[in-house]
Amino acid sequence: MQITAALFGLAALGLAALAAKYLFGPAPADYHRQILSHDGMDDIAPVRHLFRALYVIIGAAFLSVALGVGALAAGPVLAGSAQAAAIATGMALVAGVPAGVVAWQAERRTGVRTPWRPAAVLTGLVVLGGVLAAM
C-alpha cells in the first residue's frame, strides 16, 4: 500500500495546486477568455464576477477532494486499508472524470487548449493506486 499511498499523495498535491489556481488566479483564466472570444464575447466585464464566484466554488471543491485523498493516503491507505483506497479512488473519479471530459469537449469544440490533461493525469494516478491496492 506504500506505492498506492504515494500515488494518492502526488495526486492530492497536484489537485491542491490546481485548486489554488482557481482560488487565487485570474478570473476568467486565459483559456476561458480565449473560449469566450472564440464564441464572440470579447467584452468579459459583465461575466468577470460570475467567473470569480464559480472559480471559488471549483477551487474549494478541488481542495476538499485533495485534502480527503491526502488524508486517506497518509492514514488508512498507508496502514493497508483497501476500503480507504476504494473511497479515495471514487472521490477522484467523481471529481476528475467530469472535469476532464468537459474540458476536453471544450478544447475539441473551440481549439483552445484546456486543462483536461492535468485532470486526466491526476485521476489516472489515483486510479492506478486504486488498482494496485485491489491486487
The major sheet is characterized as:
none
Helix residue percentage: over 70%
Low-confidence stretches: none
> How many discrete structural domains?
1
- Radius of gyration using CA atoms only: 16 Å
Through-space gap between termini: 10 Å
Q: What order do the SSEs take from the amino end to the carboxyl end, as H and E?
A: HHHHH
Instruction: Output the number of helix runs.
Output: 5
Question: Can you tell me the overall shape?
Answer: elongated
Count of strand segments: 0
Structural class: mainly alpha
The proportion of residues in beta strands is under 5%
Layout of strands and helices, then pairs:
Blueprint: H1 2-24, H2 30-38, H3 48-77, H4 82-110, H5 116-134
Transmembrane segments: 53-73, 85-104, 116-134
Keywords: Membrane, Transmembrane, Transmembrane helix
Account of the 3D structure:
It contains 5 helices and no strands. It is mostly helical and 135 residues long. Helix 1 runs antiparallel to helix 5, helix 3 runs antiparallel to helix 4 (82-110) and helix 4 (82-110) runs antiparallel to helix 5 (116-134). The model has no long low-confidence stretch (mean pLDDT 95). The chain crosses the membrane at residues 53-73, 85-104, 116-134. Keywords: Membrane, Transmembrane, Transmembrane helix.
Features:
about 140 residues; mainly alpha; 5 helices; elongated
Summarize the structure.
The protein is mainly α. It has one domain (2-134).
